[in-house]
Structure formats: structure tokens, C-alpha cells
Design brief:
The structure holds two protein chains of two kinds.
Chain A: H1 2-8, H2 15-46, H3 63-99, H4 102-117, H5 120-145, H6 163-187, H7 191-199, H8 204-233, H9 236-241, H10 261-268, H11 275-308
Helix pairs in contact in A: 2-11, 3-4, 3-6, 3-8, 4-6, 5-6, 6-8, 7-8, 8-11, 10-11
Chain B: H1 2-6, H2 26-45, H3 49-71, H4 74-108, H5 114-118, H6 132-164, H7 168-181, H8 185-200, H9 207-232, H10 235-243, H11 248-275, H12 280-285, H13 304-313, H14 319-350
Helix pairs in contact in B: 2-3, 3-4, 4-14, 6-9, 6-11, 6-13, 7-9, 8-9, 9-11, 10-11, 11-14, 13-14
The chains are: A mainly alpha, B mainly alpha.
């Protein structure tokens, strides 16, 4: 009799369940707190920078004048990197999903993983000591023959430590993430669409243009945005490759280059004191906001496309 | 019947084609001819190997579509052009990887010896020292980061899959984890600095701060991979456990986690491999030193990436000694990362749930 009564009552929550459920929820809250903490602590430590004078802002009149050339350099380097990486990444992703035989595709997949696994400081080392000097002849050629294009106005850098070199290194570093996402989306194209296109006599390229690309468009855009976010925040490659002088210029191959926010922090933080530290943290906050917006937009595009498909 | 089977069926190749087609060996022939022509021109004009390869690829991209257009049609020509373009893109993408590995191995291998691994740089001026202090620092800081992020990441993933469902808290955590994966590493370092400045005052350098910064980068990777793995556990298993009267928390610990363990361990190892090469946050908060420091809670700590960075940017009076050491440390770091990646696969196989009974 007592057994039946016990069953009829509302289910009793066990202590273990209660503790465990709240433990996991607390862990989730820690993540929320950590992200809020990033914004709050950077703001607290960054606010004093708005009162800083030229002495603490390497000569700039106020914080906006200090951070603007850095924002310009950050955007320039990241956009250049994306312009180089995106076509290559789409090519690699297409090879894996539609061109290469399966065995080769697996091998290429491993190599893309390897490309992603190499630490950024090693890319920086390679870019500064190997790639830069090897690009000097190219820059001299560009300065000689194409100097009427503002990008190649010259005079060419003799060390190769230009913003174009930095962008090439950045492009190599964001290639894996763009490739990985595009490859996944290309592979998900409905098989029937592809076969229908082929059955109508389309060549492989026409099949890709007619069935794969329309399906993957939003995915490619968000992959590019995520790559852009990665390139915006990448520090070491730029800090080690670029010889920066904080100017605003579109000239990509000269020895005076705009710096980026992240590289500027890495290069000057160790020697900074007082308000200089606050200015650097405030510039970090600006970088955080920029990458946040870019990543947010990328995720938003992904989520919107998921609703449609 | 047998006669029918023995007779080979008429395949597409035997049907008459409406269009003339280039022979199958046409692309190979064009590649060989382009390289030969470009090599000849390059040798006559005294070009470097890079210029010769570039010209050869351009020749190939131009010649094959032209030939195809003459024999086949415009659409086939476009197709062949794009096919060529895709393979060239693949080649270009992997030139840097090969060059990088080649350089790191070539420059770094001669440096590696017993002294390199067992000495620190303490009191070493003008001669080759070792990276013992940097290896210790990297292992301690990354280990501490793993100790912080694995419980938080794993428990959050359990919350997201088992408890949160589609609640508002769960979806906002999911969204913010996505956002966290995009945090620039240097911002994570600034965060750790801004946090520890409150306790230790300006100019703080502390190994624990590096661990906090790295765990900020590591947690989202752990959550992401663990969540994917937990989602793969079939609902049947959970329901079978509930039907036997097992409480939910014991179901998760005894049934769900062991089933997903292989994937979770792989994910954690990959996350460690991802953060072990991070430089920027450690540059800011962990600092650099020539001595070996075993204490995470006090003083500067050297790490491998920071060692590479300073050996490259501040080689002092003896760059001919510091540079090779940077390459050597780079080789060690790449090897560590590769071993972790291999380990991830091996562990994944080792912990895979046993099939059958």
C-alpha cells in the first residue's frame, strides 16, 4: 500500500540530480561571466586612456587620433589577407569536395589541418626571416613597372617587411578556417541537384556554378567573415613581419607601413607605463568590438541561412 | 544466359560522341609542353625557378582552354580552364606549408642536442644555451589552462546538451561560446592583465595569468567539441538507463560520458594543441625570463613561443647564436603540436566504446 502512495505523489528530485544540474549550470554561467568580464575589465582599464595626452599616446592629440591609424592598418591587412586567401580557399575546398579522388582528398584534408596547427609565432618567424627577403625582387619589379597603381607606388622595401608580406602570411593563416567551412558546405550540396545538372549535359564547372555555388553562397560569405575576424585579431605574424611606422598609406610595398592594433600592443606593451598601458588596453577594446561585430555578422548570416534551408 | 554475361555491356566509351573530345592525356601533354617552353625561355633569359614555374602555369592555363576551344567547344574550354585554376590554387596554397616545414626543419635540426633541452638561458651570454626553462613554462601554463578549462568546458557542454535544451540561458551560452571562439588572443591577454592588475598592481607578470588567458581561448573549443560528441550519444541509451530507475546525474556520468569519452578526449587534446602555441597573451601577462620558474603564482615565466619571439626580435649582440636557437625552439614547438595532434587520434581510438559484448 505504501508503495502505491509513494508512486502517486509528485516525483521527488534527488539530491544528486539537484547538485549536478546546478553544477553544470554554474559552469555555463562562468562562461557568461568570463565574457562579460572581458568587456568590463577592458573598459575599466581602458577608460583612463580617453583623458591621456600626447605624451602617453606616442604624439597623437587624443585617443581617437591615436587609434585611427591602427584601425586603418588592421582593416587594410585583414582585407588584403582575405582577398588573397578567399579564392585559394575556395579552390582548395572545391578540389577536396568535387575534383580530387577520395584518397587525395583525405590527404589534402590532413595538410589543411597541418596548416592550421602551425603556431602563429612560427608563421611570424618564417615570414620575417624567409618569406620577406624572398619577396624583395617581386616588390622591386612591382615598384619599377606598376608604380602608377597607388598600391605599388614604392620605393620598394629592401627588407621585404611590408604590409603586403604581412597580409600574405595572414592569408596563409586564415586559409584553413575558410577552407574547412567551405568544404563542409560544398559537400552538403544536395546530390540530386548536382546529378540533375550533369544529366542535362552540364560540364563539371557548369554543375558547380549552377548547383553548388547557389547552395553554398551564404556559407562562403560567413566563412569569409570568420576568416576576416581571425585576420583582424592575429598578432604575432604581423608583429614579427611588419616594420611599422604608424602612417596611413595605401602603398603596400614600401618600408613605411601602417601598424595594426594587435601588433602595436604586442610590440609596445612590455615597455609601456602608466597611461600608455591604459591606451593600449583601450585599443584592445576597440579591436574586441571590431572582431565581435564581424563574428556576430558571420554567425547571423549562418543562422539565417539555416532557417531557409 | 552465359553468353549474355560474357559479352561486355556497351559502355559510354563505345558510343559515338557528338562532339570531338581532346584525348585523355591532353592535360598532361600540355603541362609537360608548358614547363618545357617556360624552362627554355627562363634559362635563355636567366630567370629564377619561381618565375619559370609561374610562366609555365600561365601557359598551361592559356593553352589547354585554347586547344579545347579549337577541338571541342567554348563550354568545355571554360570547364578545363576552371579545372586548371582549381588545381593551381591547391598548389599555391601548399607551397607555403612545404616551404615553412622545410625551413624550420633545415634551420632547427642542427641546433637540437642534449644541452639545448636541459639548459636554461640563465647567466648565458654570447654562447648557445638551452630552452629547458621555456619548455617547463609552456608545460606548466598550458597544463594549468587545461585544469581550468576542461571542467568548465565539459560541465557547460553537459548543461547545454542534457539540461539546457532550448532555454534562453542555454541558447545565449551557445551564442557567446561562438563569439568567444573569435576573441583575438591578444585581447585575452589584456583581459588577464586587467584582471590581475587589480590584485598585484601595475606591471604584473605571472604564470597563472597566462593560464587564465589561455583558458579563455580554450574553453570555447572544449565546449564546442564536447557538445557535438554528447549530442551523438543515442537517446535510447539514456532512456534505457532511466527505465532501470537510474537517476539522471548517474546516467550522465555512467552512461553518456563513457560513450562520448573518445570524442571528448580527442577534442580536449586538440584544444591543448591549439593553445600551446599561443604567443600574444603570454607575451603580455607571463613575461619572459632567462631562469627556470616552477611557480605559477609568482614572477615571470618563459614559454616556448615567447622564447622564439624574443630570440627573433631581440637577439642582442649575437644574432648568429640567437637566430638558430629561435629556429630550434620553433622545431620543438611544431613537434609538440604534431605529437598532440597524433595523440588526439590515438586516444580517440583507445577510448572508443567497445563494440559488442
Amino acid at each position: 500500500m505504501s508503495i502505491i502512495e509513494a508512486k502517486a505523489g509528485p516525483p521527488k528530485r534527488r539530491l544528486g540530480d539537484l547538485v549536478f544540474a546546478n553544477l553544470t549550470r554554474a559552469a555555463g554561467m562562468v562562461i557568461l561571466l568570463a565574457l562579460a568580464g572581458v568587456a568590463i575589465f577592458l573598459t575599466i582599464e581602458g577608460i583612463p586612456a580617453f583623458a591621456a595626452g600626447p605624451g602617453d599616446l606616442s604624439g597623437a592629440a587624443n585617443f581617437a587620433a591615436y587609434v585611427w591609424p591602427l584601425v586603418f592598418g588592421t582593416l587594410l591587412a585583414a582585407v588584403l589577407a582575405l582577398a588573397i586567401a578567399l579564392p585559394l580557399a575556395i579552390g582548395v575546398a572545391l578540389t577536396v569536395s568535387h575534383y580530387a579522388p577520395r584518397r587525395l582528398a583525405t590527404l589534402i584534408g590532413y595538410m589543411v589541418d597541418l596548416l592550421a596547427a602551425v603556431p602563429s609565432v612560427i608563421y611570424g618567424l618564417w615570414g620575417g626571416l624567409f618569406l620577406g627577403p624572398h619577396l624583395v625582387p617581386l616588390y622591386e619589379w612591382l615598384a619599377e613597372h606598376l608604380s602608377w597603381i597607388p598600391f605599388f607606388a614604392g620605393p620598394a622595401s629592401t627588407t621585404g617587411r611590408t604590409i603586403l608580406t604581412a597580409s600574405i602570411v595572414l592569408a596563409i593563416m586564415v586559409l584553413p578556417i575558410i577552407t574547412a567551412i567551405s568544404r563542409e558546405i560544398f559537400a552538403q550540396t544536395p546530390r540530386l541537384n548536382e546529378e540533375a545538372a550533369l544529366a542535362l549535359g552540364a560540364t563539371r564547372w557548369e554543375m558547380i556554378r549552377l548547383s553548388v555555388f547557389p547552395y553554398a553562397r551564404s556559407g562562403i560569405v560567413s566563412a569569409a567573415m570568420l576568416g576576416l575576424g581571425r585576420a583582424l585579431g592575429e598578432t604575432m605574424a604581423v608583429a614579427m613581419v611588419l616594420s611599422a611606422s604608424g602612417v596611413i598609406t595605401l602603398n603596400l610595398i614600401s618600408s613605411t607601413n601602417p601598424s595594426t592594433i594587435a601588433a602595436n600592443i604586442a610590440l609596445t606593451f612590455a615597455d609601456a607605463t602608466g597611461l600608455q598601458v591604459n591606451a593600449l588596453i583601450a585599443s584592445g577594446l576597440v579591436l574586441f568590438v571590431i572582431t565581435f561585430v564581424v563574428n556576430f555578422a558571420a554567425r547571423w548570416i549562418v543562422s539565417r541561412s539555416e532557417v531557409q534551408v | 544466359m552465359t553468353a549474355l554475361v560474357d559479352k561486355p555491356p556497351a559502355t559510354m566509351e563505345h558510343l559515338p560522341l557528338r562532339h570531338a573530345r581532346l584525348p585523355r592525356w591532353a592535360p598532361i601533354l600540355v603541362v609537360v609542353v608548358s614547363f618545357a617552353a617556360s624552362g627554355l625561355v627562363g634559362l635563355l633569359l636567366g630567370w629564377g625557378p619561381v618565375a619559370i614555374v609561374v610562366l609555365a602555369l600561365l601557359l598551361y592555363l592559356g593553352a589547354l582552354p585554347l586547344w579545347s576551344r579549337a577541338v571541342e567547344n567554348r563550354r568545355s574550354a571554360n570547364d578545363r580552364f576552371v579545372t586548371g585554376l582549381v588545381w593551381v590554387a591547391l598548389g599555391i596554397a601548399f607551397v607555403p606549408l612545404v616551404s615553412l616545414l622545410w625551413t624550420v626543419i633545415g634551420e632547427g635540426l642542427p641546433v637540437l642536442d642534449a644541452k639545448f633541452f636541459t639548459w636554461s638561458m640563465r647567466n648565458i651570454v654570447g654562447e648557445k644555451g638551452g630552452i629547458y626553462h621555456a619548455i617547463i613554462g609552456t608545460l606548466l601554463i598550458t597544463g594549468a589552462a587545461a585544469v581550468i578549462s576542461v571542467p568548465i568546458g565539459l560541465l557547460s557542454a553537459i548543461y547545454l546538451v542534457e539540461y539546457g535544451g532550448k532555454s534562453r540561458l542555454a541558447s545565449s551560452i551557445r551564442f557567446l561560446v561562438d563569439v568567444m571562439t573569435g576573441i583575438p588572443s591578444i585581447v585575452a591577454g589584456l583581459f588577464a592583465y586587467a584582471l590581475f592588475v587589480l590584485f598585484y598592481g601595475p606591471g604584473v607578470h605571472i604564470g597563472l595569468g597566462g593560464a587564465v588567458a589561455l583558458s579563455l581561448l580554450m574553453i570555447p573549443i572544449v565546449v564546442r567539441s564536447a557538445e557535438e560528441m554528447l549530442k551523438l550519444v543515442p537517446a535510447d541509451l539514456r532512456e534505457a538507463a532511466y527505465a532501470l530507475g537510474v537517476p539522471k546525474w548517474r546516467t550522465i556520468i555512467k552512461v553518456v560520458l563513457p560513450t562520448a569519452m573518445a570524442g571528448i578526449i580527442t577534442g580536449i587534446t586538440l584544444a591543448i594543441a591549439r593553445v600551446i602555441g599561443e604567443t600574444a597573451p603570454l607575451l603580455i601577462i607571463a613575461g619572459s625570463t632567462d631562469s627556470t620558474n616552477f611557480n605559477l603564482f609568482k614572477d615571470q615565466m618563459m614559454t616556448l613561443p615567447v622564447f622564439i619571439y624574443y630570440s627573433y626580435t631581440q637577439p642582442g649582440n649575437t644574432p648568429e647564436i640567437a637566430r638558430p636557437m629561435a629556429w630550434g625552439a620553433a622545431l620543438v614547438l611544431i613537434l609538440i603540436v604534431l605529437v598532440l595532434n597524433l595523440l588526439a587520434r590515438v586516444l580517440g581510438r583507445l577510448f572508443a566504446p567497445k563494440q559488442g559484448h
